Amino acid sequence: MEQLSINHISKRFGRQLVLDDVSFTLAPAKIYGLLGRNGAGKSTLLNIITNRIFPTSGTVKLGDLDTNNNDDALGKMFLMGEANLYPKRTSIRRTFDLANEAYGQFNYQTAARQLQEFGLDDQQHVNDLSTGQRTIAKLVLALNVDADYILMDEPVLGLDATHRDLFYKELLKSYQAKPRTFVLSPHLIEEVAQLVEHVVIIDQHKVIADDQVQHLLDLAHTVSGPAKLVDEYTAGLRVLASENLGNIKTAYLLDDLDDQRVIPDQVKLGHYDLQHLFIYLTSGGEHNND
Ligand SMILES: Nc1ncnc2c1ncn2[C@@H]1O[C@H](COP(=O)(O)OP(=O)(O)OP(=O)(O)O)[C@@H](O)[C@H]1O
Question: Could you tell me if the ipTM is greater than 0.95?
Answer without folding.
Answer: yes
